[in-house]
Amino acid sequence: MLKNKVALVTGGGSGIGRAVAQVWAREGAKVVVSDLDVAGGEETVKLVRAQGGDAIFVATDVGKAADCEALVNATVAHYGRLDVACNNAGIGGPSAPTADYPLDGWAQVININLSGVFYGMKYQIAAMLKNGGGSIVNMASILGAVAFANSPAYSAAKHGVLGLTQAAALEYSAQGVRVNSVGPGFIHTPMISGLEADDGVRAFLVGAHPIGRLGKATEVAELVAWLSSDRASFVTGAYYPVDGGYLAR
Length: 249
Ligand code: NAP
Hints:
- By secondary structure, the chain is an alpha/beta fold.
- It has eight helices and seven strands.
- The protein has a seven-stranded parallel sheet with strand order 3-2-1-4-5-6-7, with helices on both faces.
- Strand 4 (84-87), helix 4 (103-130) and strand 5 (134-139) form a beta-alpha-beta unit.
């Protein structure tokens, strides 16, 4: 599905980003894994190579525009082009109601979860236009469509990712760059291990998904891989939940 494509993922050292790297590689892509977490990113590269794939690691802080530019440059320097990107890196941030929400937590969540997607696309699109197009998949959340109490920054950032995705799709689809976002429900990854550790919270979260369980990172990665590929050639500017029915309630 992705043979000869060069694909980069941010936040590829853990959870959903790692699964995206592995599914992309299974489908034949050459993968650039980037993350703030060097050990996690290098582990993902090892896993991809162990399954017979081709991957490199580039340390990147998506909250810094210069890092996002350097990541695209490193990709093109190593593999000669960029066809696919998944702007996936993100953090949960503090948990507090809006009036009590810490200012520094707000700035950090918006910087990583929203500005980081903008910085990523800014340089990825320029590189993709040089080879006639590409596909970008931005990692939103169900919280890009509805809110979660005590997560105002996260909810706002993920709603912003949907708008940013649509704006870029309007601007670049005619030039061959498709831009979409995906909205995972609660997925079993290190990001939510704190929530899952509390039996009551876990039961509440499971109950919010009509399918009766939390999701797996690979279930998100399969959707990302399809959107990344030419099989999704008429899909752009869209938001795809992958949420076990969470938004259908
Ligand atoms: P995860 O397991 O915590 O993985 C996120 C990765 O991103 C980590 O390796 C993390 O590194 C890295 N990262 C954090 N800040 C970064 C930065 N500034 N620059 C580069 N990398 C950075 O979380 P996940 O669940 O896979 O989440 C991936 C994406 O899916 C996020 O955008 C998240 O909002 C979204 N999502 C997750 C869920 C869920 O339930 N898990 C649901 C909906 C959407 P460190 O470990 O060093 O921080």
